[in-house]
Amino acid sequence: MGLRAISYGGGVQSTALLVLAATGRIDFPVFLFANVGDDSEDPATLAYLDRYAKPYAAAHGVELHELRRVRRDRTVETLFGRLTRPGSRSLPIPVRMSNGAPGTRGCTADFKIKVIGRWLKAHGASKAAPAVVGIGISLDEIERVNARRAMPYEQPVYPLLDHDPPLRRIDCQRIIRAAGLPIPPKSACWFCPMHRPSTWAEMRRDRPDLFERSCVLEDLLNERRAELGRDPVYLTRFNRPLSAAVSAAQATLPGLDHADDGGYCDNGACFT
Ligand code: SF4
């Protein structure tokens, strides 16, 4: 049988897939987590991975591989490292331009899709024999399916949508709890510009050190932009620095906070 793997993002949806695979309800023996960097992933996601996901996978005979982007010289490159490299002009994350629109990004492709693709190809996936790659998209975010472009060496499938009945995020939480696991935190880079305003506001309240690091990163990117004579960019859509933007975001009415729900961060299992 051909290769069957889950693109594991470390969040609620893909952890539910881990439980479904571990309990024989879906047939995926391999889970692939593309770690974009220990300095880049949300520390809470990495802690969950080490404390819960890896031991649970191992106890149930599921292979969970943590993959990293490796350069030609065999050193590991991280997304934060690429962003902050001295003299770098690279802006690989989807920062917001002054009109609030997300800029183009290479992070998902370079640090997730290609990293997982390299592993799949090294293990036999090809255009002639594509790997079946399961993606953790739940019914309440079904629009993300259309945003995903299949690579030539893979055949994407959506086990949560194929489930009878299709599963929502809340069903995923129930499945995780029933397996005796805690609910994982939202998985994304701590500095991801696709965070909802409420996520930034919670970070400011609960993890001020991480929030402060995000402000410092935004300042660094803009110092560089200023040297190049370019307009500033921001980590939120509010056209002002993060520290000012988040208090503005707190005024957002509950339920009107969907514009930044991570829906663009699709291909490589960010936020899943
Ligand atoms: S979480 Fe955001 S910053 Fe990180 S790889 Fe995905 S899109 Fe890029």
What does the model show?
It is a single chain. The protein is globular, with a radius of gyration of 19 Å. It has a domain of 184 residues: Rossmann fold (3-Layer(aba) Sandwich), CATH 3.40.50.620. By secondary structure, the protein is α/β, with parallel strands linked by helices. 38% of the residues lie in helices and 8% in strands. The longest helix is centred in the C-terminal third of the chain and has 20 residues. Helix 7 packs across helix 8. Helix 1 links the parallel strand 1 and strand 2. It has a five-stranded parallel sheet, sandwiched between helices. The structure holds iron/sulfur cluster (SF4).
How do you describe this structure in short?
This protein is of the alpha/beta class.
The unique ligands bound to this protein are: iron/sulfur cluster
Overall CATH architecture of one domain: 3-Layer(aba) Sandwich
The 3D shape can be described as: globular
User: How many distinct helices?
Assistant: 9
Strand percentage lies at 5-15%
The structural class is alpha/beta
Biggest sheet, spatial arrangement of strands: 3-2-1-4-5
* Rg over CA atoms: 19 Å
Compute the average pLDDT: 90
Series of H and E elements: EHEHEHHEEHHHHH
CATH homologous superfamily designation of one domain: HUPs
How many beta strands in the DSSP annotation?
5
Sketch the major β-sheet.
5 strands, parallel
Give the CATH level 1 class of one domain.
Alpha Beta
In the predicted model, the low-confidence regions spanning at least 5 consecutive residues are 251-267
